[in-house]
Specification:
Strands 2-4-5-7-6 form a 5-stranded mixed beta sheet. It has about 200 residues and is of the alpha+beta class. About 55% of the residues lie in helices and about 15% in strands. The two termini are about 20 Å apart. Helix 2 crosses helix 3, helix 2 packs across helix 4 (about 105-120) and helix 4 runs antiparallel to helix 6 (about 170-180). It has helices at about 5-35, 45-65, 75-85, 105-120, 150-155, 170-180; strands spanning about 75, 90-95, 100-105, 125-130, 135-140, 185-190, 195. It is built from 6 helices and 7 strands, in the order ααβαββαββααββ.
Length: about 200
């Protein structure tokens, strides 16, 4: 994959997320109005509200992870609020150990690494994101991991023995996006932990 391919993929990701976020927001507003007037209540309404909220959170997350990203800063409050919304829809907890704002394109890499870790934790777990100097460390921990050794072994080079599937696209995008930013990816796995550094 060339840098131009990465840029095109990012532009496509941005466009899709941009076009989806508006109708999701409109549905959310409509549900809030229905709740205010008491038109619809009960478990059905809770299911719809929860599903729309989860969809909106994932789209905002994907917009950072897959979209075009420059070096404009993202603050701790914005990132942690987004991660908390995403957490509600899944079994993985995320600890964002940064207090300062960081460039959006670096958050993009961290989110792609987070998705790689999530793929190894189908039964839940915890991901910790640390930043020291110019280095990032994303660590996923769980009592039970499901690690695809071929994917993780090939992650630093970005050259995979088998074609990646749609659910594995983060493994292909992370090393390419990192390379485009002048960074190199390192990965380690144990029986209870996966770690990505860049």
């Amino acid at each position: 994959m060339r840098d131009s391919d990465v840029n095109l993929a990012e532009l496509i990701g941005s466009r899709i997320c941009h076009d989806l976020i508006s109708p999701i927001g409109a549905i959310t507003n409509g549900l809030e109005l229905l709740e205010m007037v008491g038109a619809v209540q009960g478990p059905e309404m809770e299911l719809i509200s929860g599903s729309v909220g989860s969809a909106g959170a994932r789209i905002r997350f994907f917009r950072v992870a897959f979209g075009s990203a420059g070096d404009q800063p993202l603050g701790r409050a914005e990132v942690t609020a987004l991660l908390k919304d995403v957490e509600r829809a899944g079994p993985v907890r995320v600890n964002w150990h940064l207090t300062e704002a960081v460039p959006r394109n670096q958050v993009k890499l961290a989110f792609l690494a987070l998705m790689c870790c999530e793929s190894a934790m189908p039964f839940g777990g915890e991901v910790t994101i640390d930043h020291a100097g110019e280095s990032w460390t994303i660590t996923g921990s769980a009592d039970k991991l499901n690690v695809d050794n071929d994917l993780w072994k090939s992650l630093p080079s970005g050259h995979f023995a088998k074609p990646v599937t749609p659910s594995q696209v983060q493994f292909a995008l992370l090393p390419e996006s990192a390379t485009a930013m002048g960074r190199r990816v390192a990965a380690e796995t144990t029986s209870t932990r996966v770690t990505i550094r860049f």
